Amino acid sequence: MNKVLLFTLLLALACTSKKLDVTHFTINPEANRSVSISDMITDLQVIPLEMTEGSFMREAAKIVAHEGQLYILDRRSSAIFVFTENGVFLDRIANPIEGPGGIDVIVDFNIGPSGSTVELLSPKGKIVEYDFLNRSYKEILNDFENLVAVANFAIMDEDTRVFYSSRNSRRLLYYSIDKREVVSTQYDKSPIGASKFSFFSPFKEVGNELYFMDPSENSLYIREGAKFELVEQYRFTVGDPIGIEWPQQFEGTSTFSSFLEENALYYPMTSFRYTDQICGFSVAHEGSENISFITTRDSGNWIRLDIPYNERVVPFLSSDGDYFWGVILDANLVQEIFSQSLLDKYGIHTPDEVDDTYEANPVLFKYRLSIP
């Protein structure tokens, strides 16, 4: 065999067999001290989103900051809403029409590789590309047979998209746009019943790194070459979902909720993000209460973050450098969630009563935490 070819093969085998060190975090929810979020914040911006007939939103499931603008996914409206960093409404991205460029349901989105497009994902295995300049829609992928019930995706490179699917099994599907096929799969695990809490987007790009967080097993993976490798696992001393004997199937949502309550489970993780120094996540407890925890990345000492009306707040929707992005689903709750002294400190003024013309008035908040 040619020596150059042999060396190449050996190098490829060495790379594919590379295993990363896994860090294990143990959280004792009964022993962790609880601190008010207002006492931990060292910088706060509250950004009400302008509400008009064109910008009416029901939820904020994902947020991406791109070139001074905020792109927010509302899955219930199947639309991406675009605002300035101050919350002024700019545009609504949606194309619920019949035909190749149409997309009736949007469950996830990403800014395209060129930075001048946004890719919209349908759960039916379809990606439609929206061009910012031309304000046009173009179908770039449509494979319902192989990409059925996909919930989220990330861009690996110009050609490859990785999809997260939870139908029949929880899997990562690597799809080549050029070849029009699934080129490989990874992480094939049994599905778990549906929760009333919405899963956050499990993919997160930080600089040149791409992460995947499994919300069912609280495990963090990082892209290594063409695959994801496990790097961190989060386990609870009580009520941990790993090791529990799950039923083969649940008859309905109520039965599943009862199972979570009976076993006092911390499941599922509902939001998770890193800043440069702090890790923060929220998890549902007993299928009802939403609880948040934070730690510094080097200590592993966990603090329970006390957030009023936690079922109406997503504290770790995204992150950017030292800052977290969160969303409050009702603007009337701003003064209930943050102390008046904190709002006064950062010059944040909220109206006594928010116009209730619309069903919901989401408010973004960008903040920095400090752990003493």
Task: Walk me through this protein's architecture.
The protein is mostly beta strands and 372 residues long. The protein is built from five helices and 26 strands. The strands form six sheets. The protein has a five-stranded mixed β-sheet with strand order 1-19-18-17-16, with no helix packed on it. A five-stranded mixed β-sheet has the order 2-23-22-21-20. It has a four-stranded antiparallel β-sheet with strand order 3-26-25-24. Strand 12 (150-155) and strand 13 (160-165) form a beta hairpin. The chain starts with a helix and ends with a strand.
Summarize the structure.
With 372 residues, the protein is mainly beta. It contains five helices and 26 strands. The chain has helices spanning 3-16, 37-40, 253-262, 334-337, 340-345, and strands at residues 23-27, 34-36, 41-48, 62-66, 69-74, 79-84, 89-93, 108-111, 117-122, 126-131, 136-142, 150-155, 160-165, 170-176, 181-189, 203-206, 209-214, 219-224, 227-236, 266-274, 278-285, 289-296, 303-306, 313-320, 323-328, 363-369.
Main pleated-sheet profile = 5 strands, mixed
Number of helices: 5
Backbone CA Rg: 21 Å
Helix content: 10-25%
Biggest sheet: strands side by side, in what order? 1-19-18-17-16
Average pLDDT confidence is 85
Q: Report the β-strand fraction as a percent range.
A: 35-45%
Write the layout of secondary structure elements.
Elements: H1 3-16, E1 23-27, E2 34-36, H2 37-40, E3 41-48, E4 62-66, E5 69-74, E6 79-84, E7 89-93, E8 108-111, E9 117-122, E10 126-131, E11 136-142, E12 150-155, E13 160-165, E14 170-176, E15 181-189, E16 203-206, E17 209-214, E18 219-224, E19 227-236, H3 253-262, E20 266-274, E21 278-285, E22 289-296, E23 303-306, E24 313-320, E25 323-328, H4 334-337, H5 340-345, E26 363-369
Parallel strand pairs: 1-19, 2-23
Antiparallel strand pairs: 3-26, 4-5, 5-6, 6-7, 8-9, 9-10, 10-11, 12-13, 13-14, 14-15, 16-17, 17-18, 18-19, 20-21, 21-22, 22-23, 24-25, 25-26
